[in-house]
Amino acid sequence: MPLLPVLVGLIGITIVSLIFLAARPDVTRAPGGKAFAFLLVFVAPALALFGGATAHLEKSKTTQFCLSCHVMTPYGKSLAVDDKEFLAAQHFQNNRVPRDHACYTCHTDYAIFGGVRAKMRGLRHVMVNYFGTAPDTIKLYSPFNNRECLHCHLGSRSFEESSGHQGEETPMAAIKSGKASCLEAGCHDVAHNVHELSEVTFWKPALKELGQ
Amino acid sequence: MTLLERRIRIASMLVLLGLVVECLTFVWKSPLAFFLFLIVGCGIAGAGILIFLVSLVTVDRGVT
Q: pTM of the full predicted structure?
């Protein structure tokens, strides 16, 4: 069941009831009046606020949300690069990641996604975007985790049988354990490469979809 | 109107305002909407909830 319509319904009913309670607080004198007030002023708002936080966190997983910060514009544009070497672009354009959750699918522990620490970083990012100076080049807090690739590719035939994943330099066990990074030089090392965007061409439908 | 009822009215209005702010943040597309929700919406509604709970345990119903 979609969260937002249910939440808006709950908030609407609570608002109407709160208007009544604010206009007629003497209803709390009646039997069960305090319980009615407790439901309206504590239980329903607590549920609405918890649901609101959940809805906002869900919204933060969307590609549109990530690209709404100016500093992310080149990263969004990199998803439309017309070059098979560009890993992020290929995943986006070929629906290997859900387009509306493209960033979150590969960066599940970055900024607002992930644990409390990640969420605090995410809030700081938003503050820096509006009230500070964002760095020219964005760097991940920790090296890209193979887990982000493996949660889709693990077990898939093309991945498991690929000769490139069976070599002596990058044995499958090392890839799966994270000892060898998927983004290692010579492997899938062209991800976003935003500083090369002036030299590439773009696939226009993706540009249009990303609003670039 | 008793003191408790006055406080319930104030608490209701604060919670009401907090929920209205929350609704507004759902339609605002900016990332700042989350901040507005967290700081203003939750702050106001939280204050209302707190006033209500404190009033329930501290205010004598008979006092006007």
A: 0.80
